[in-house]
Amino acid sequence: MAKGTNRVYLLGTVTQTPELRYTPGGLAVLEVTLAGQDKITDETGGVRELPWYHRVKLFGRYAELLAEQLQAGTPTFVEGRLDYRAWDTEDGQRRSAIDVRVDRIEPLNPEGREGRTVTDARGQERLSDALNQVILIGNLTRDAELRYTPQGTAVTRLGLAVNERYVSRGQDQEKTHFIDVTAWRELAEWAGELTKGEPVLVIGRLVNDSWTSSTGERRFVTRVEAKRIERLTRGPGAGGPGAQTVQTGGVDVEEGLEDFPPEEDLPF
Amino acid sequence: MAKGTNRVYLLGTVTQTPELRYTPGGLAVLEVTLAGQDKITDETGGVRELPWYHRVKLFGRYAELLAEQLQAGTPTFVEGRLDYRAWDTEDGQRRSAIDVRVDRIEPLNPEGREGRTVTDARGQERLSDALNQVILIGNLTRDAELRYTPQGTAVTRLGLAVNERYVSRGQDQEKTHFIDVTAWRELAEWAGELTKGEPVLVIGRLVNDSWTSSTGERRFVTRVEAKRIERLTRGPGAGGPGAQTVQTGGVDVEEGLEDFPPEEDLPF
What we know:
The structure is a homodimer.
Chain A: E1 5-14, E2 21-22, E3 28-41, E4 47-59, H1 60-67, E5 75-88, E6 94-107, E7 117-119, E8 125-127, E9 131-140, E10 145-148, E11 154-168, E12 171-184, H2 185-191, E13 199-212, E14 218-231, E15 247-248, E16 251-252, H3 253-259
Parallel strand pairs in A: 4-6, 12-14
Antiparallel strand pairs in A: 1-3, 1-5, 1-9, 2-3, 3-4, 5-6, 7-8, 9-11, 9-13, 10-11, 11-12, 13-14, 15-16
């Protein structure tokens, strides 16, 4: 346990006509930003609109095929998965990011869609009845810790290690995606009890977050805001009493911790 | 166009401890019924609970592995897809059914879940904060037709042909799933305009329906109730002017019509 599940569903408007580019190795890459807004119920039961902008990536022949069809303003459906990347900056700092890797992208027929977008401050269109859903199964990379914002709102941050297996050049490969998940209010109070290694199901939405680091830099992060978290039963292969590490289908959670952004680097 | 998308997510309680059985060919089959209830907003804006019972199927080694773990009352998550079956009865009538074929099933850790189920009339547990979501991309097998119930509520029934490609014994195989989709009220009025062959995205929930046929028999059907329907752009391969049929990735929609339950056999 636990084999990863990693599904993202987005429905938003293409903000700018994307430009096809090629890697030095000749691989076509198409980066598309989708914009939408979600209806959010806040703690008082009020409903407000929360805008989002998420970058999705296509590769290879699929990128080339779609480059023509995805014009600015096109409402578009994406089925994909979260893709974790980590790198070191020139001054030796560890950075990471989450993108959405596209499995399927479908421009919608815009007929009859008048009035379904709002124009943002940069003149880009944002879909007002958007869809933004993430479904993940993974293991916690550390014990959950419940905190409170200065306003007294409960918030729990979870580090989730989500396994991916794939075949590349005839070889079985494995990759772990480190996904930052937050839970708020009642769900946060409950999720504060979760412990390192536990397999969980998370259903939520993809959100953008930005903050100023202690060195004054502006930082951006993509994370999952959980609407629902469920504990899964540990399978027979999970670590028993005395186990120091939990094998998650071949991924060592201890090792994963190294890759995860340090706590102090994050806004709360 | 259109390659099929066919995803089902269910979170419900196992109603009865399932019994593993084997086909004459020796394939293990595990049939599990999950029960839950969805919160539905009706036309007056009121919220009520709609119970559902859906049968999901596992095969082979996965069925054998899970047979031990899925006890009555276990809250369980399923990721799967809709599977269409058609057969002829002994008196030569065409019948069809939709099941959920499991790609992944995960019993939840029941700790802290007290009070999250309700007991039904048969003494079985039903999850009260269930999840029931279906995401489909397919082509319409016929023009949509808007009707009204005797109470004046708008309802549109759509026949959706959803393509599946898979490899079996080293051969590329293709199967088409014929899924019955209903839309109500405002969505029904809009969907009434959709025409045969159009590729659409449908997001909704799986519902049970039963009715008495003209010959007095009790019939049951599983269908998708749409919360959202989006028209997709026709790809370059779709039928142009004068085309009599639309190729959906190799599947002829005309041919599909033969397989679809006759109109008069359905409750409205």
